[in-house]
Amino acid sequence: MISSAEPTEQQLDDIKEMATVQGTTQQILMGPKPTGEATSKDGKKKKSRRSKKRASGFEEYYCDPPITPEEHAEEKNVLYPPHRPFVDRIEECIQRFRARRRLDNRREHIFSQYLMLGGIDATVRQFQSSREITDETMEITGKSLVREMTADDVINRAGEGAYNHRFYNPRYPEHWDVDFSGIVAGFFSERFRAICGTDVGVLADAADVITNFLNYVDSHDVCPEYREDVRNARKVCKQAREELPAIWEAVSLLPGEFNTALSTLYCCDEEVGSSLGPSGLCTTNRKQAEIYKAATITIILGPDYAKGTGEWFVTDTVEQDFEICEIKSPSTAALANYKRLNDYFKERLADSVSEIKPCGTMVVQPVSVRDGWDNSASETVMLKGAGRSFFILEQDILDKLGVGMKLKMEVCTLNVGLKFIKSITDIRPTFYVFLPQELMFGYKDPAPNKRPAPSIHDDEADDDAGDNDD
Question: Distance of alpha carbon 149 from its chain centroid, rounded?
Fold first, then answer.
C-alpha cells in the first residue's frame, strides 16, 4: 500500500505556476467543474444542458398539477360559480384549456373544428397575438384579461347585423341547445371524415384532444348541471375510437365473396366479362361463383331451399338505408361443414376452387336516415310497414359490424325471395347523428353588390370586363 506525503510549499507554487500557464488552475487543485458550469473563453458561464421539454398535456399518464387553495376558491367563486351564465363559464374554460395545453397543428385544427361545430367561433384573428405584449403590460393588465383579449375562441354577443350567423349568440338562443354528447357524435359522424379522412392515427389524436377537453370540463366542475352529458360525450369518443376503424375495414371488404358471386351469376353479362373484386361488381370465374353459391346456401339455408323453383333471376334492385338489428355468426355445425367442404375441395379441386369462407347472417330493418341531403325526415326513423330481411355475409365481415350501425346499400332481390348486396355506398356508426350546423360550415352572410344590374345599354367592353371579374 502506497501512501502520499503532503506537497511542500515550493511544490505547490510550481503547480500553481503551471496551472496559470495552461489556464486550468481550478481544475488541477479542486477537480473538474460540475456539468452546467462550463465557461467560455471570455469567462462567462454558459449552459451545457438544455431545459427539459415542457409537457403537452396529452401524454398517456398526464394529469393537471395540483392547484392552490386560492386557485380553487377562484374557480369555485369567480370563474365557474353556478350562478354565472353557462356561456361565460364555458368560454372561460375553453380559453384556459388552450392556455394549459400545447396543441400541435393537427390537434389545433381538430379542436377548432370541434368547437365551431358546437357553435363557438374559433377562427384565427389577426393582430391579436400576445407576442408583442411586454412584461410590464402583462403585470398591469393581468394574465386573465390578456388571455381574453388574445383568445381565438369567443362567443360573439353582438347585436343583429354584427355577428356571424354560423355561430351561437346568447342574444338569439333560438334553435340552440347545450348537448355535449350530441356535438361529439355529430363531429365523429360527419365533420371528422370530411377534414381527416380515414387515418387511424388522426382518429386517435381527435379522440384524445376531445376527451382531454371533456376531462378538463369535468375535473374543474365547469358545468355541474351537465355533468352526466359530459361523461356520455366521453363514452362517444371511446365508441368512435373502436367503431370507425372497424367500419373502414368493413367497407373495404363488403359486399363480400358470397354476394359478389351472386352478382356475377345474376347481375353481370357473361359476354362482357367485367372483372372487379370486392367493390360490388362481377368476377369472371363463374364456376367458382356457382360453387360458392351452392355450398353457402346449402349450409346456411338448407339443401331444400327454393327447391323446384326453376331458374333464378333478379326481380328488383333498390338502393336503401338499413339499420342492423341482429348479427348471427356461423354455428359450430356450420363451421364444421365449411371445414369438411374446404378439405374436400383442397384434395380434389385444389387448382380450380379457392377456399370458401364461413358465412353467417345479418338481420336488418329499412330506415330513413337524416343526412342533410333532403328534408324527408327530422331524424333517423324506422320505416313503417317495412319488414326485416337478412343478408348472408362472411364471418370476418360480421365481426367488424355491430347492432345499430346504418348501411347504405344497393340490394337485389331474386325470384326465390333471397336478397343479396350488389354494392355498398356507406356505413354509419351506431352513434350517427347529423347536425344542422354541418350545412352552415361554408355559409357567408350576404353582402350588398354595388355593381349595377346588366343593361342593354352596357358597352361590349364593359361586358367583357365583367366576365373577367368572375
Answer: 31
Q: Are 398 and 362 in contact (CB under 8 A)?
A: yes
Over the Cα atoms of the chain, what is R_g? Answer: 35
User: Torsions phi, psi of 427, nearest 5?
Assistant: -130, 130
Q: Name, in order, each residue with C-beta under 8 angstroms of 219's C-beta and a sequence gap of 6 or more.
A: 64
Q: Which grid cell sits at 164?
A: 356571424
- Residue 197 φ/ψ region, left for φ over 0, alpha for ψ in the -120 to 50 degree band, beta for the rest: left
| HSE toward the beta carbon, residue 1, CA cutoff 13 A | 1
Residues in the chain: 470
User: What is the separation, in whole angstroms, between the first and last Cα of the chain?
Assistant: 98
d(CA 159, CA 174): 14
Give yes or no for a contact between 287 and 379, defined as CB atoms under 8 angstroms apart. Answer: no
- Considering Cα of 189, then 191, then 192, then 195, what sign does the dihedral take? positive
Considering only CA atoms, which of 346, 341, 345 is closest in space to residue 358? 341
Residue 423 is placed in which grid cell?
Answer: 354494392
pLDDT digits (tens, 9 = 90+) for 354-378: 889 999 999 999 998 887 766 555 5
> Using one digit for the tens of pLDDT, what is the confidence trace for 214-233?
999 999 999 999 999 999 99
User: Grid coordinates in use for 222?
Assistant: 365547469
3-state secondary structure of 98: helix
- Dihedral, 314, 317, 321, 327 alpha carbons, nearest 10: 10
Peptide linkage before 255 cis (omega within 30 of 0): yes
